[in-house]
């Protein structure tokens, strides 16, 4: 087909918020672009609700949507299931783990970040983090198994260890998990057991800084703390975790060391750019922060590489002086949409204004009927806590959920949970059986 | 509390249809009985819809309900997560894998059955069966991965192997899986890929007998076959599978041997009583059929052991001469309810009439808008096929689903799938990545 211009090839690596919204925007370019979206998973995951899967309120299929069905009618876009492992920025080629190189004219790196154990990878088996659906079903399994084991355990000390839950990290994920656990213990399971009282569960939220929700205004964080404490959560700020194993968590506080016997530790701390993002940084010589995230310019590309965009959690995206775009859903949605537009503008020879992040604010929910918000553009109205915050949170999450059926199904589940105080997807899958009840002493 | 009679201890092993309905009925006995329900899983699974999870139409949480929440308000009942491994019929005690003996006055064995490979256990890794939620998500993973791999494969022969699906067993599970696969290939994925045409998938349904749906009337089976063929399913009756590995299925037909290259084989044949059922048979000397199912009398107990009921798929329950109660949902629901009532009648000194199975009929759905029914008590009206069968099937399944929220959520999903021809829970979880594309030749 000589004489006809080839479409501009855009490769998008990662189908999270940033990659998804970028690819969607590029769909408007029609024959101008040829988009390839590569992801290791076949689905887009609505990460803000993942903790609800981990705590049995929603089923995995209700917060995820197959990428192929999202892009079914976007004819200039092709979805590939695969893992990007290498990049050659000179040849402009991305290589997948299991096959051929994919050439690009423009590359969008949107591979996100995962949690890190700050050099203590040996803690990983005892303290799973929450990033994928498999993580969420594993955490759900551990929480439910803990109550089951407590019900079967005769020794009061061992039983208390099963009923002790330690959450490490006081950011939004840790706070929402702690709130959900508090609700499970106080409401959901209240009548389910015959030997234990789930209300006796001991839920610790441990944060090294001197406050929870460090990105929220002071007042919102203090309100969240009060709401958590009302749910029976033991909030420990200024407390550093120094050891985790199958039976014990050791912490350092201002008052000295402390030890808690527990069988269930959940990890909600630490951010590290995903491997491919760090590979791109190495190959292009891009500057990164200490979490491996690439520092991009106001056009969201790597300085010296205008053909490589890095978006969302894989990047340090400029916003206010000394404060980059936060790692929330909007921090992927807005840059994704903007980058898609920018590529089409460039191809059409139109000017591209710099990226400006518009802070839509933060909302966190804490158990039943309560939460905190910080929505600057609503003025004083944007600073809500309790019931109003909870209602706002519900509305915002339903609107952004991908897939119309999911929106209805999640609404039904929430309405039903609200009326019955139930969580109907409390399924133990994977390894259904209790671990054998054995001697709890760690080897000396 | 001397002077006050101790409640009669009933231990129910298994929370499927038979065990669940028995325990529910026993709830009406109040302080007369003390019920312990033991299951290896923490949830009751609505097995008839499991193939819809395997084919991405429903999410696991939508067809399962935690046993604890079902029995939350039934105060004479206790749920234990555990695996029954031994029985001492003299001491009247059941032993769990991880702990103390549980004494019983009456025992209900409702541990069901699973598939068997007729002595070819080496086929298991290549041809998973469908019994648990984990089986269903594994089958879903394999089906979806096959299409993804085909999209990536350049060699036409290898691509065709990825797009060939062999289902072994022409009973209701095999037929419903084949219908769902036909629908996935022809409707759901029609527009999702760019290199392959999902309609080119080759779906084989292999049955050793000379007809599918052997428990249905001849006419219904013939209609089901026509409906499957209309969906493009290649129905092979009178065909025996003699070899399965990672790349090939070999079959014996009247016309001689045949070989099919495939990467996806699903197993829907063979019934074997679960281990605990066979343990009970050995310990009590009960007679079994060749599938290990215990032959019970008209009171559904083991002859000589009126205190041991065996129900559902774990038993051969008498019905018509030469024809026991079929292995369908009603074959567990009715005996379960009856046994619960019988135990309460006995305790109250009331007479117990023999168990009579009332045939509610059979319904199978075949893809979108079609199916077959055989409902004897509706007379000629009960023999439907096509759209009417499909509507009946929907209604019946919604009514029997446990959990009100699940009923609404499943209705929404079905309505939405119907309108959009979509299957929104097509998630690949577990091992997300494709297997490396390697040489397909089996070692010589």
Characterization of this structure:
- 2 copies of one chain form a homodimer.
- Chain A is α/β, with parallel strands linked by helices and 444 residues long.
- Helix content of chain A is 31%, strand content 23%.
- Chain A is built from 11 helices and 24 strands.
- In chain A, the strands form 8 sheets. In chain A, strands 5-2-1-9-21-20 form a 6-stranded mixed beta sheet, with helices on both faces. The first copy, chain A, has a 4-stranded parallel beta sheet with strand order 13-12-11-17.
- In chain A, strand 11 (164-168), helix 6 and strand 12 form a beta-alpha-beta unit.
- The longest helix of chain A has 20 residues, at 133-152.
- Chain A starts with 7 loop residues before the first strand and ends in a 24-residue tail after the last helix.
- At the A-B interface, strand 4, strand 5, helix 4 and helix 11 of A face strand 4, strand 5, helix 4 and helix 11 of B.
SSE inventory with pairings:
The structure is a homodimer.
Chain A: E1 8-13, H1 17-27, E2 33-39, E3 43-45, H2 50-54, E4 64-66, H3 67-70, E5 77-81, E6 84-88, E7 93-96, E8 99-103, E9 106-109, E10 113-114, H4 133-152, H5 156-162, E11 164-168, H6 172-188, E12 202-206, H7 218-230, E13 233-236, E14 240-244, E15 248-253, E16 256-261, E17 264-267, E18 272-273, H8 275-284, E19 294-295, E20 301-302, E21 305-310, E22 315-316, H9 330-347, E23 362-365, E24 371-374, H10 387-400, H11 404-420
Parallel strand pairs in A: 1-2, 1-9, 2-5, 9-21, 11-12, 11-17, 12-13, 19-22
Antiparallel strand pairs in A: 3-4, 6-7, 7-8, 10-18, 14-15, 15-16, 20-21, 23-24
Helix pairs in contact in A: 1-9, 4-5
